[in-house]
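Today's session is about reading a structure prediction critically. Students often jump straight to the picture, but the first step is always the sequence itself: look for stretches that repeat, for charged clusters, for runs of hydrophobic residues. Only then move on to the predicted structure, which in these notes is written as discrete structure tokens rather than atom positions. Here is the chain we will use throughout the hour.
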Amino acid sequence: MSNKYLTADGAFSYEINNDSITILSYEGNEHFLPIPDKMDDLPVTAIASKAFLGKKNITHLILPDSVTAIGDWAFAHMSGLQIITLPASKVTLGKQ
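Below is the predicted structure for this chain, in token form.
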């Protein structure tokens, strides 16, 4: 089941997995997009495969330190992306 988390200019779709959050997708117009470290009082620990696929308007993406896994092609075809800030901790990265 997918849930929504609203931001000033968009919304994240996410699912709850064993007391943590996986970001499924983002719909919106923000250029600077910090992903929250918590949603529904649970830590955001994963970015699903193809979660941000083709989001050309995002130029700066910040992942919280709570993220430990990034799925395949999570950031593929984001032609506007100039800066991505990854967590300081170890992150498992998918393909592409």
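Discussion point for the tutorial: The chain has a mean pLDDT of 94.
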